[in-house]
Amino acid sequence: MSAFLHALRVFWDHLAAVHWELLAFALALHLGRLFFRAIAWRAILRASHPGQKLALRTVFGAYVAGVGVNSVVPARGGDVLKLFLVRRRLEDSSYATLAPTLLAETTLDFFVAGGLIAWALSIGVLPTHQVYSRLPTVDWKFFLRHEQATAVAVAVLAAAALIALAVFAEHGGETRARFRRGFAIFGNRRLLLSGVVVPQLVSWVLRVASVYEFLRAFAVPASLHNALLVQVVDSLATLFPATPGGAGTKQGLIVFLFRGSQISKSVLLAFSVGMTLALTVFNVVLAGAAIGLMMRTLSLKRLREQAAEPATGHD
């Protein structure tokens, strides 16, 4: 976190150079990206809850609320909020059904992000794991420095997961059936393509376009190559989100990935922190508005009370 604070001071020194109109355009593209993500998630939810009405505004509100919380809470705590907000609008639903919809919603991301990382590896910009372990701001450097202990822990966790999966498959009963419903979208190829794949591909285009405009806003040479490199950094930084939004890790990685360019370290740090701060503030504001409109309150006490109430099914 100290590295992030240093980067924050660098950003403050470069604040006067920010092009605010380009920053606003980048945020508008980011909002469009979230909207198309919500469209895709709604298709997945409707496939798992046939016959039930679910307005797009509800799904969009839940989605941006979760994204906002994930911006300030580590370990993707906002995903729980997404499920809670949607479950209140669906009768006869359960978290056992809703949780798999988030897995289905990120399936395409796995392939796209994996392809970008493979591209970064092919051009030789990604550091080896030995270099990762020496980068002071990488959240998961502990695991890289203790490879044997990490391998044993991963093997134990994998074995435990397999045992749990076997027990669940044998004795899950109704819970297993509800869980399977969450993946119903994969049984409808037409809806999967038109309702999920197409909107998510559009969201990825908007995502890269947003990064491109952020580069322009912070006076960093903007190109498709540089925008894709920044996206690789974002994917790697959120792989193990030990800090909100991968703060700290992003700054260390972006300096390393752009090491062969003529862009100064201070400009890169100012860009990385500036984009992170802009997105965090924007996401949090959106989340507050969504929660306030959907729950009619921002009081934590009232939110806890409403969490204990049954789903209403009203949209």
How would you sum up this structure, described in words?
This protein is mainly α and 315 residues long. It has one domain. It has helices spanning 2-13, 20-48, 56-72, 78-87, 95-105, 107-122, 129-132, 141-145, 147-171, 174-181, 189-217, 224-237, 249-257, 265-295, 300-307. It is globular.
Counting H and I runs of at least 4 residues, what is the number of helices? 15
Radius of gyration: 21 Å
Question: Could you name the ranges where pLDDT drops below 50 across 5 or more consecutive residues?
Answer: 130-140
By DSSP, the count of extended strands is 0
H/E element string?
Answer: HHHHHHHHHHHHHHH
Count of discrete structural domains: 1
Separation, N- and C-terminal Cα atoms: 41 Å
Which range does the strand content fall in? under 5%
